[in-house]
Amino acid sequence: MIMHSSEMRLRLTQLGYDDKLSKEEIIEKVKRIYLEETGKKLKADIKVYTSKEARVGEKSGYNGIAIYIDSKENKKDELYVISQGSKDIKDWDYNIKAMLAGKDIRQAKATNKFVKATQGHFNLNKNEDSTSIIGLSHSLAHNNNTTAYLLYDTFDEIYSVNGAQTNYYQLYNANLEFRETVQSKFSISPIDPNAVYDIDPNKLRQFAEAYYKDKAKNIHQVINLFAVKVTFSDSRSSHA
Predict the structure, then answer these.
(1) What is the pTM assigned to this prediction?
(2) What is the pLDDT of residues 207-216, one digit of tens each?
(3) How many CB atoms lie within 10 A of CB 36?
(4) What angle in degrees, to the nearest 10, is found between the helix axes of 176-186 and 201-211?
C-alpha cells in the first residue's frame, strides 16, 4: 500500500473535511503527508476527483473526494476514496433515518455511485488485476463506506477512525439475500416489514457479524487509537 501507515491514512481522511481546498492544494498536501511520514518524496502522478464534479450526493448529502495515486516507479496504483462524515443538517437528518431507524441507505448508495463514477473518470476497471480501491472514513462516513462495501463490494479495503457503526437493520432492508436468511433463521414473517424489530437485537447483531465475517476482514477501524473489529450498531431502542 502506498499510504501504508495509519497516520498517513488518518491525515488523508482529514482532507475530506476541508471543502475549500483546490485540487492542486489537495495534491500538494498528499505529497507533503507522504514526505513528512516517510522522509521520502512521493514519486507518483496524483489526480483528484470530487463527488460534486460527479454530481453525486446532491440529494442525500453525501460528499466525497477521490485521490488516484499512480506510482509508476513502484508499478503500483491505488484509488483512495475519502467519504466525509457528519457536517451539516442533511447529514444529521440522514443519521436519524439511517443509523437510528435503519430505513435509509441513500448515502451508502451515493458512496458506491461515486466510486463507480470515479473509476469511469480515471478509466479504471475493478477486476482481479485492477487498481486497489481503499475507502477512508470517520464518523457517519464509516457507516456509508462499510454499508456500500457489504452491499455492493465497493471497496477492497476500508480504514476508519471513530466511525458510526454498521447498522444491521439497514442491511436487512437493503440486502434481499441477507433479509431472506434472517427471516429463515429467526422464523419471522416475510410480509411484515417490522418483524425484524422483534428479534433480540444482540442475537441479530451476532448473526449479522457471522454472516458478513469474510468481508469484515477487510474493514479496519480505530477507536480512540485502539484497533477494533467491525461491529454492528444496536438501533433497537429507536423502535421501542
Answers:
(1) 0.87
(2) 999 999 999 9
(3) 11
(4) 130
